[in-house]
Amino acid sequence: MPASDGFFRDLKKVHVVFAWSALALFGATIWMMAVDHIEEWHGVQKTQYRLEAERLRLSTEAIATREFRDEEGQLLEQIKSADEELKNQIAAQEATAKANELARQVDLSSRAARAVRAERDKERADYDLAVRDELSPDELDKELQEFNVKQAEVDSLELDLQVKEAAYGVAKSALEVITRQRDELKARQTKLLADIELLRKAELKIEPTNPLSRAKRRIMEWPIIDGFNSHLKIHQDWLPDLPITLGMTETARFDRCRTCHLSIDRIEAGNRPTFPHGDPGSSDVLDWIRQNKYPHPHSTHPRPDVYLTAASPHPVATFGCTICHEGQGSGTEFSTAAHLPDDPHQAHEWEQHHDFATNHFWEYPMLPKRFQGAACIKCHHSVVELGVNPQFGATAPKVHEGFELIKQYGCFGCHEINGYEAGVSIGPDIRLEPTTEADKEKFATDPALVAGKMRQVGPSLRHIASKTTSEWIAYWTEEPKRFRPTTRMPQFFHLTNQQDDDAKKFMPLQLLGTAQYLADRSEPLELDEPAAGYEPNIENGRDLFSKKGCLACHSHKEFPGIDADFGPDLSRTYAKIKPGPEGFRWLYTWLRNPQSHHPRTKMPILFLDAVDDAGTPIDPAADIAAFLLEPDASDQSLDFSHDQQTDYDPVALDELVRLFLTNAKVLSKAQINTFFDSRGYPLPIEQIKGDEIEFFSRDDGQEVSDAEWERRKLNYVGRRTISQYGCFGCHDIPGFETARPIGTALQDWGRKDTSKLAPEHIEEFLAHHGEPDGSSTKARVVDALRRADDGTFKSNEDEERELAAAFFYESLLHHGRPGFFWQKLRQPRSYDYEKIETKPYTDRLRMPKFPFDEGQIEAIATFVLGLVAEPPPEQYLYQPTGPARDRIEGERLLTKFNCGGCHLIDMPKIRYAANPDDLLASELSAGDHPEGYELLLKLKPPRQGETGETVELEIDGERVTRPIISFEGLISNRPDPQDLPEDQEFAYDLWETLQVGEKQLLTGSKMLASAASLVDAAGNRDGYARPARGGEFAEWLAEHMMDSTTIGTTRGDRSLARQMAPPPLYLEGLKVQTPWLYRFLLEPGQIRHTTLLRMPQFNMSSEEAMALANYFPAVDGVEYPYQQIPQREPQYLSLKNRELHQEFPQAEGDYLANCWKTLNVPLCIKCHSLGGRQVKVSDPKKDIRGPNLDLAADRLRPEWALLWLYKPAWITPYTSMPANLPRDQKQFEDLFGGDAGLQTKAIRDALLNYNSLMEREGKFIYEPKVETAQAVKSE
Amino acid sequence: MKVIRKYCRLEAVLVVISAAVIPLVTTGCGDVENSGASRQTTVTIKPSESADDSQDNGVNGDVPTATGFGTLQGRVVFQGTPPTLPPLIKGGAPIKDAEVCAAVDLPDERLVLGPMNGVQNVFVYLPKAPRGAPKSEAPQDSVLFDQKGCRFFPHALFVRVGQPIQVVSGDPIAHNTHTKQKRSTEFNRVIEASDRNGVLFNYAKEESAPVPVICDFHTWMRAWHLPLDHPFAAVTQADGSFVISDIPAGTHKFRVWHEGVSGGVLQRNLEVVIKPGEVTPVEVPYPAAKFSAN
Predict the structure, then answer these.
(1) Neighbouring-strand partners of residue B191
(2) What integer is the mean pLDDT of A777-791?
(3) DSSP class of residue A396?
């Protein structure tokens, strides 16, 4: 049988199968296309286009007012009548006809010329080819001839054209004269309609009126057809340089987020979002436009200066979206994009409106709003710039807060955050500095290793026995907050997994053992003491405590107005320090030189040296120590005594020791039994690596007495407890020098595999417990969600806090990292719930409970979740150089050494509604030097004071609109509370140069703002819209001293009081020479005499001093680290010399000699010691004494010094220093002819050459010339 | 011309008054002091520019209870035993610029009493111009503010906003005159030795209380200036008396201020009824307890 189609298969059947499968395939294709077509983004884009069109239409309507339409109509009428008129005018008709005829002729000639020009060009090319082909001269000549003929033709035609063009020009001008009026009307019409035309064109593009275009646009939205460059399409950012890790491979990143977020980068003039985000509470686009609030995804990204725009540091074309937001960039649906709700309430809303479901297949979903900024630290490893940024402000304040909290609370003591991998930066680095010599050596020699920079946050316990008793240590350790509620030390005992009998039995032993171990191993400390017979004065101590700067870092209940928390609250020092003379001596030693007790302490040396006050010795350290040790009789909570007897249960101790020994897994059960019998450790000391070393003693070989045996056991328990809890992460403890952090490293915790988190029975725990009052967290969350549904939250803060708890709780139930972390910080031991029954006592969870509130926990979580150790390619890392880098490093150190505790770093800002007519423009007085004014404008360029915003105020019963003006300044006078509310007025000293309209206000001007006119000042008693950064102590001290008569004689003088306080560091970079600042930071000497305290000596390295010295000029944008002082150079001096002798032939000596004389005239010496002479002091307590001038040469920058001499108030409004050489006075005529300007420069030059002049000229007392001496000038 | 004539006439009257007062002053007042006081009086009692203006202004502003103007005349009297203040600087004390500043005893001027315990240098003023008061321009003739023997003369001075103050010095050493007002830019500059031409300056804004004027070189030196934008103020004379004329009739609350009182305010609201064309007498008691020697 011949083979046929039917040989193998039944063809009919095959046809049927084929037909069905074709149908199925067709169906599937249709289904696929349909599914694709109904994807949410189509609708979103359509809405967006409608929004755009409506907005354009409304904008057109807004322009096309009745007046506008009237004007347009009028113009149209006028044009029409002008046209009519022209039509009827014979001259016009003729002129038009003539012009038209000439235009026709020009056109004809021009065409003719063009044709012949082409032929001429062809001839030229032929000739060129002939040259190339080296034709014979005859042929060449022939080609040239042909060219010449054509050229002549062209010339003649062009001449003809020129003539005709000229004639046409004349005719056109004549016609223009006739039609000028009509043409002008038309031009006005075009101008009037220009904006509207633009809007209309844009609108037509989206919603064409032409039926054909409309149909085309509609058809382009059809399935399949929409694949051909439709206006509805996927918008994709392709980022090959910013790969994403999928599974185990890296691939280019595709972000399709802009498919829905179409207008995310739309901005308007002035860098303002075109579609500002907001909740319009409606789904009608017209409502959105009316309210100017646009919901997601139709809104523009906030802060276009920072994100998305090409001019910002993060252009969307380079960065895309998911590098910052996470999520699945390739997803084009709400759920597949891996959006993540901010709380369960929002999740519920999303489920209803977007069919939202968690995308389990995407490991790293989008960061919810509450963790905004977490991803910033992928690139911003130094973190600081996210919180303190002069250009952009705090862009990621929560991450920055988390970072600072981790540093403050010392989390890194147990949980290392290693920002380096093989020497390459992978994220923020927060690690302990190397402590042992071996470690230091290792880091110093291996270039691939980067050392940690953090100090242990707790005090050193190496000499603790000199400071306090072991009873106090045990009392404190048990519950630190009980003794000092503001302490940062966490709680290790009495937590949720220590409520059973075992814990109750063992905890007291662990506390006792720890205290005994620390006291036992404490190393002796050489203690200082005041001079023999010195009687410390408590009252004086109290006064000095307030004035010597202690309150810049510490608080004390006797000084309620200031509560610094850089150091501990010192209110109950008397209860803590060892009683008796030894405790006093320890405190005295600590105050004199804190580094002797704790070499790495941040407490500086305060120069509290004993002084002789008119025959009475004063030892400030002794007085302050006496003040701090004076017990407070009213302290009822003092439930602790240094000599309390502590009994313990010896059986329990043995049990605990056995437990620890068993857990150590070194000895067998039998060995342990033998050990307890013999009291001799079964292994030789060489084999001991752990805490069992405590069972050996220096006098080994002797029989172990009962007391010694008990001591050893307790010490062992103490040492085990310290090992277990990792106390050495925060404290320097003898015996633990080489111990390593005990906790999980956190540098990639943000990517931690969630299957490795062990939530254990946390759901059960939170169902019944979880809140501080013991109530159920679950109930709290259920209640929060109910209230969110009902909208019954009392306040936004309430809602935010409760829904945050709900978010974390939900996350925890779904094994999420955020939830796990949240509960770990809230109740670290709660994961042991119902687990302690099945594990040994020694294996229980160890993490202590830190005193964080839920807001702080969220901030820390934001930071830790951002730790992913996935650095993007290097070009994306923020690695600033030059001043930007130095600023960041400086900011870090400002925080580290609490410089802002004393010094004001950034001036406060005031915003108020001003009446510009009331502002007094600064005018130069006859005494002011114009050159000084120029210099002022150079050093402090005027800043625009008007913000462009306005506010409505009620003044005398009328509502008026006033512009908001902002400026930097300090309060100089608060309103009198007895004044009527409308008379309440704040007065400020202006510290910058301000331009308001035409008016210029110079530093030192007083700015007056009525209480009602202040903007953003709620709650600030000084009316500041942005409070000062730093300087809290300085302002407190000034306030405190205002009613004192310490300097000057006037009470209530804020200016004088400010001179007693630490100076602001405003524009410090402009002022001081960087090398001087570096030396000064390391070895601060006394500069000022009016200040009540001296700059202390900080425990800083020379690198740190250098970085800090560089910070100030980097901020102020001036030269550093080295400065030239041209005033010392021979060229400058010889030029000055020549000028001096040319202008004043009578002048004796060279330029510098004259400068020296000028410096020594009886002016500077009134307040400054100089030139080998001491200032004459009338009353050391009241005199206003300036700094000694020998410091100026190395300290001051030349321009700053000159401006200061011209007019000090232009730099520091509160200074007592006057303008000494006003321009309109002719003093000391034998010096520079009495020219005050030259004399001012001369003083500056003398100051900058001070040392050499002192050497060369020596002491000099100015003797006025006879003719001017004592003469009463022109009465 | 009319104004000037009026002014001259008034000054003549005042010179007569002060001539009558001077002999009453028994101790401690040198020539300089008197000249300072007389200048200050000249300024204080200068009447408003022209009574004719009052009509126009009265229509627009809040009309006082009665039309017309009256005078307030009074005295500030110390009650109780006055404290004896030791000199600020003893003659011959070894202080800065002692040859000038400690040539003689420098009196403590925080409390200067005249005959019958009248308190000198007390400011009596309306914190704000009363409604309906005629507008008056600040006088453009300058008032002298002198420094001699490391003291300021006058010790207490009422000036008008915008009125020039001529700061001079009769000492052969430099002083630094420094005004400490709260509402306008401070004046802080050196006045050279023996400068009788001196320097002109004025207050650009009114103040709510007298402002201290100091010399930063010689910190004990102190005077008080009260700049106001209206003429209703006076400083008490050596006998504690003061006169404020041309006050719109009605009830007014005057403030009485003296440096010796803690916080300055002796009476915050001294309520006075001014009747048209009449002189309202008032005696302000200064209880000894109010004076604080610190």
Answers:
(1) B175
(2) 95
(3) S
Confirm or reject contact between B216 and chain A (CB < 8 A).
yes
- pTM of the predicted protein model: 0.85
| Distance in angstroms (rounded) separating the CA atoms of residues A149 and A940 | 74
Cα B233 to Cα B245: distance, rounded to the nearest angstrom: 9
Q: Where are the beta strands (DSSP E) in A1094-1212?
A: none
Q: What is the pLDDT of residue B135?
A: 84
Which range, A607-616, A880-889, B284-293, is most confident? A880-889
CB A1177 within 8 A of CB A1185: yes
Q: How far apart are CA A520 and CA A711, in angstroms?
A: 9
Nearest to A1219 among B172, B180, B188 (CB): B188
Could you tell me the CA-to-CA distances from A508 to A648, A778, A1249, B132 in Å, in that order?
8, 33, 69, 83
For residue A936, give both structure tokens: 């002022």
Cα A164 to the center of its chain, rounded Å: 72
Write phi, then psi, for A770 (nearest 5 degrees): 115, -25
Cβ–Cβ below 8 Å for B185 and A1221 = no
Quick count: other Cβ atoms within 10 Å of Cβ A1138?
11
Chain A contact for B275 (CB, 8 A cutoff) = no
- Cα distance between residue A1047 and residue A1090, in whole Å: 7
Q: Which pair of structure tokens corresponds to residue A1082?
A: 């390391």
pLDDT at residue A699, as a whole number: 57
Q: Name every chain A residue with its beta carbon within 8 A of the beta carbon of B257.
A: none
| 8 Å CB contact of A1167 and B216 | yes
Show Cβ contacts of residue A1237 under 8 Å, excluding neighbours closer than 6 positions: A929, A931, A1221, A1223
Question: For the purposes of burial, counting CB atoms within 10 Å of the CB of A593, is it exposed (0-12), middle (13-18) or buried (19 or more)?
Answer: middle
ipTM value, please give it. 0.80
pLDDT of residue B132: 78
Q: Is B92 helix (H, G, I), strand (E, B) or coil?
A: coil
Tokens coding A759: 């939530």
pLDDT at B24 over 70: no
Contact call for A1209 and B205, based on CB within 8 A: no
- The helix/strand/coil state of A898 is coil
On the 0-12 / 13-18 / 19+ scale of CB atoms within 10 A, A1199 is middle
pLDDT at B8: 42
The three-state secondary structure class of A922 is coil
The Cα A351–Cα A344 span in angstroms is 10
State how far the alpha carbon of A41 is from the alpha carbons of A232, A266, A590, A678, in Å: 9, 18, 68, 81
Distance CA B73, CA A311 (A): 72
Integer-rounded Cα radius of gyration of chain B: 19
- Judging contacts by C-beta atoms under 8 Å, the chain B residues touching residue A1005 are 185
Cα A574–chain centre separation: 39
Neighbours of B245 (CB within 10 A): 19
pLDDT in tens, A113-167: 999 999 999 999 999 999 999 989 999 999 999 999 999 999 999 999 999 999 9
**Distance separating alpha carbons of residues A59 and A289, to the nearest angstrom:** 10
Report the length, in residues, of chain A: 1275
Do A1093 and A599 meet the contact criterion of CB atoms below 8 Å apart? no
Least Cα distance to B103 among B94, B92, B87 occurs for B92
Q: What pLDDT is attached to residue A1265?
A: 64
Tokens of A6: 């039917």
Q: Confirm or reject contact between B184 and chain A (CB < 8 A).
A: yes
| Spacing of C-alpha A879 from chain mean position | 16
Helix (H) or strand (E) holding A1106: helix A1102-1116
CB interface of B with A, residues 93-152, below 8 Å: 93, 95-97
B205/A contact by beta carbon, under 8 A: yes
Cβ-defined contact of B199 to A1006 (cutoff 8 Å): no
Q: Count the Cβ atoms, other than its own, within 10 Å of residue A773.
A: 5
Beta-sheet pairing, B241-248 with B69-79: antiparallel
